[in-house]
Amino acid sequence: MLEKILKKSGWADLLIALLFVLFGIMLIVNPEAITAMISIILGGICIIIGILKFFNYISRGKTEKYLLAISIAIIITGIIIMFCGDIIFSVFRILIAIWIIYSGIMNLQTSIIWKEYKSRLWLLTLIMSIMMLFAGIYILVNQGAMMQILGGIIIAYGIFDIIENIIFIKKVDNYLD
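Above: the chain sequence. Below: its structure as tokens.
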């Protein structure tokens, strides 16, 4: 009985991992569509939460005025996210790119200091800092880069999870002994 439950759970986890891989591929292939879809979903969730807060305000006899303000603010935020999601994502992408470039510059400075102290790590740090600079610039100029990188990470996670679940399903009998 327990073996069947564990195997069903393993197959369900395998299906979820395959969905993660599919989602990661979609992020790489068409990041703009996925960004738009995520914006609509998150905006819709905010609007629903705002509406629920408004009903909460009405049900409490309109005595708690802060609920009205919160509900209006959440609804407006939802609308902004739905219709301006690409702008919000662009600002977020630019901030992350600037942070990565800044980190690359700081690591470049560190590698120079390490070279002066004759550390063997200076070359590795130099290479990594240059890679960070290029990655930051790539994210800055390529709108879909963030989603593509995220897609790659999701695919890697999905593949590792698939392998783990296949091993689990095959070895479930050994775990029960």
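The CA atoms of residues 8 and 52 lie 37 Å apart.
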